[in-house]
Amino acid sequence: MKEEKNFKIISVLSIALFFLLCLPAGAVDNYVASSTNFKIGEDSISSGGITSTSTNFGLSDILPVFSGEISTSTSFSSRQSAPAMSSAYLAISTPSNVAMSPAINTSGGGTGDGATSWTATTDSSGGYSLSIKASTGPALKSATDAFGNYLTLVTSVPDYDFRVGAGADFFGFSPEGSDISSLYKDDGVSLCNTGSNDTVNKCWDSILTSNKTFARGTASNHPNGTGTAVKFRAFAGTLVSKAAGSYSATITVTALSL
Question: Is 106 within a domain?
Fold first, then answer.
């Protein structure tokens, strides 16, 4: 039996008006045991077999774990008796820091935008997924105030347009790229989670403390990888007063090989 392990890798990004911190992420290096001289990439648990001895030797064997793969020639046939395993390569880029701009006034409202991108690379035949979450709820906050998490008109379905209102304040995101999930694709007119379009600055959603999958590839994209842009937007309506200060959000994007 052929076994393929799935791996994940995490990229952490802080979004703020002034100071930002970004933790790097790289390729996954997976192994089950190591020392200063070696690494063992895979192991297996087997049982059974017998012990044979003579005056010159001792030999212990185990019951074979057949992979089902047979090699043949004109003079022999050999069945592989160790498990055939493969480990997926997975890497994610480290994004640039994000500064929302322009600054939003403490009274009278305004809109601040920012954007970055993540490139995921895997040789897994099943592809990969990217998910996003915030470290706190609400996601974008200062020491004394916060922007509300974006509220969609239909639960769990992104809004085609970023919703605004005189008494509202929201923070949300919109992904763009060839591998975005169907949830964030649109019909090019007014609806998300339908159609096949990736219209610029459409399909806005909240960033919660639980993961939301926003991109998925269905095959190996090694070695070039696939980039997905993420746009962030903070909005305060004309009737909203926000406390002065620096607002920040810590965003975690997780890549998973499939």
Answer: yes
Measured in whole angstroms, how far is the alpha carbon of residue 188 from the centre of its chain?
Answer: 26
Number of residues that this document lists for the chain:
258
Q: Which positions ≥6 away from 66 have C-beta within 8 Å? A: 1, 79, 80, 81
Q: What range defines the domain where residue 14 resides?
A: 3-29+88-257
**How many domains, the chain?**
1
SS3 of 60, please? strand
Separation CA 229–CA 211 (nearest Å): 17
- What does the DSSP 8-state code read for residue 204? B
| Residues 6 or more apart in contact with residue 60 via CB below 8 angstroms | 49, 50, 51, 52
Kindly give the confidence (pLDDT) of every residue in the chain, 258 residues in length, as a single tens digit, with 9 standing for 90 and above: 444 456 666 666 655 433 222 223 344 445 556 665 554 555 555 556 667 777 766 666 555 555 555 667 776 666 555 555 557 899 999 887 899 999 998 999 999 999 999 999 999 999 999 999 999 999 999 999 999 999 999 999 999 999 999 999 999 999 999 999 999 999 999 999 999 999 999 999 999 999 999 999 999 999 999 999 999 999 999 999 999 999 999 999 999 999
pTM above the 0.85 mark? no
Which tokens hold the place of 83? 């498990």
Three-state helix/strand/coil letters over 70-136: EEECCCCEEECCCCCEEECCEEECCCCCEECECCCCCCCCEEEEEEEEEEEEECCCCCEEEEEEECC
80 within domain boundaries: no
